[in-house]
Amino acid sequence: MSALTVTFVEEDGTVKTLSGETGQSLMQVGKDAGVEGILADCAGSCACATCHVYVDDDWYTAVGAPDAVEAEMLDMVADVRKDNSRLSCQIKLTAALDGLKVTVAPLG
Ligand code: FES
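That is the input. Now the predicted structure with FE2/S2 (inorganic) cluster docked in place:
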């Protein structure tokens, strides 16, 4: 594991730049730091969508699109879903994602 940095922008515009480790999920880093809006009710099982984020345009290609199961869960928050929506529990941090920036989506 090696250290990296990720940035969350909360719904009110508060910016939190946090340290994480490769191998962690983005959700885990945000939840551990108490990022507002990262509730992670299902603890990362891709079953609640309370870890929904919008990936910054500059990072979307590196992060990639959701798989079918995640896309189905995102459909349940369709009113706030965007093209760059991802569930942060499904984003596994790698060295290529050092500097990743996301905005926390409003809860439904
Ligand atoms: S923590 Fe529940 S879907 Fe991500």
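Helices lie at 26-32, 60-63, 68-75.
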